Amino acid sequence: MARLLVVDDEKSIRSILAQVFEYEGHEVSVASDGPSALELVEKVKPDVTFLDVKMPGMDGLEVLAALREMDPDALVVMISGHGTIDTAVESTRKGAYDFLEKPLDTDRLMVTLRRALELKGLTRSMEALRSEVESRYEIVGNSFQIRQVLDRVEKVAPTDARVLITGENGTGKELVARAIHRLSPRANGPFVEVNCAAIPSELIESALFGHIKGSFTGAVADQAGRFEQADGGTLFLDEIGDMSAAAQAKVLRALEQGVITRVGGSKPIEVDVRVVSATNKDLSDEIEAGRFREDLFYRLNVVPVHLPPLRERREDIPMMVRHFVALTVGAKRVEERSVSEEAVEALAGLEWPGNVRQLRNTVERLLILGSGKVIQKQDVDLLVSGSSAATTLPGGLMKLDSFSDFKEEAEKLFILQKLRENDWNVAETARRIDMPRSNLYKKIEKYELVRDE
Q1: According to the model, what pLDDT value does residue 424 have?
Q2: Which residue has the higher pLDDT, 330 or 71?
């Protein structure tokens, strides 16, 4: 367990980040401004601080400078809703460990935290960590669809062929990418992951290809990009459909020629990288709309692997429930418990719009909040959101006196349900309900919505 500090003037952001981190077992403190954050640092001595850039009074960069004066080794991750390359560079110059742009992607957030804690020396031994990673990224299931996926993975992994993994959010695309790497001749090389949707468009080229000293304001040293870091191993380009047009052109050149050029540089650098990519979008539609290069699509889609949604392979759910129970209990997050057959049947009957990720989180919730040594069907009925009952009109709405009250309460319930369906990924929820992300954040704050315990 790590001690974390979240500093943001927006209450909804503080609440969401605190819940995400606490759910992972960390101790979280929050502050709404710079002065109170500096006071808290003295008391809690956080291992990692997540610090907003834009705050009234003392802004995040000033707080960062003060934190680094108090502790030159402080690990600070800057977060901003108005991220620019200049702000990111200034943060790095002042000693920030990383820079994340709002709306925050949960996966990127957790990867950043994990890497920061590794640097801090708080992770377990590499042997224990490797064992946990192997079990955590195991692909579980015995359905016809999953057997097809595993068969294709086993065939393509020993080759150097590029693979394009498609499927809805939460279906396990990263698991497949890691399985391909583990089963390949490159298994002892690096596995480098890039979430193309989580990196601001103005930073994606530098992130992928690196930059040289002086290539832009604040570039005080040469820096290798993800392609160079993955040399001899596998580069996983997640959410490839969200990559900017300029970055697409450079990726195409890297795939065709096996060379990259750092931002601001002219010297070509040879790289030996196997690229595995993934997307939840229909790239054919993106090509037709002019947002994705057709020639890049054909370069990436040498071997396609499609992951079915969980609702199309319900027969795998009992095996997956047992797997997630074993993982959670084995990690000593909860006391030892089991799940009754009736409870498993109830779980198998739900729709699971968030797919495997939602099922895993739900099993952990049941193990934490269930009432006895054995999780029963009534625990599922009481604690699991997203069941068929959750989609019916709540009777309380019909008791409201005015139409305006009805509309407001209905909007609140609708947004809460959609956030749950998308595992509280605000960016994905905003996209699915066709609402600007800034508006969705305002709604979350207005209705004081919080993630389920």
Answers
A1: 84
A2: 71
Q: Which domains does the chain have, with CATH numbers?
A: 3-120 (3.40.50.2300), 136-308 (3.40.50.300), 311-390 (1.10.8.60), 393-446 (1.10.10.60)
What is the rounded CA–CA span in Å between residue 210 and residue 225? 4
CB 308 within 8 A of CB 165: no
Structure tokens at 236: 């996983």
pLDDT digits (tens, 9 = 90+) for 184-198: 999 989 999 999 888
- Cα-flanking dihedrals φ and ψ of residue 354, to 5°? -90, 5
* pLDDT tens readout for residues 60-84: 899 998 998 888 878 899 998 765 6
Rounded distance between C-alpha atoms, residue 46 and residue 86, angstroms: 27
Nearest 5°: CA angle at 184, between 179 and 190? 80
Query: Pick from 235, 206, 238, 239: which is nearest to 223 by CA?
Result: 206
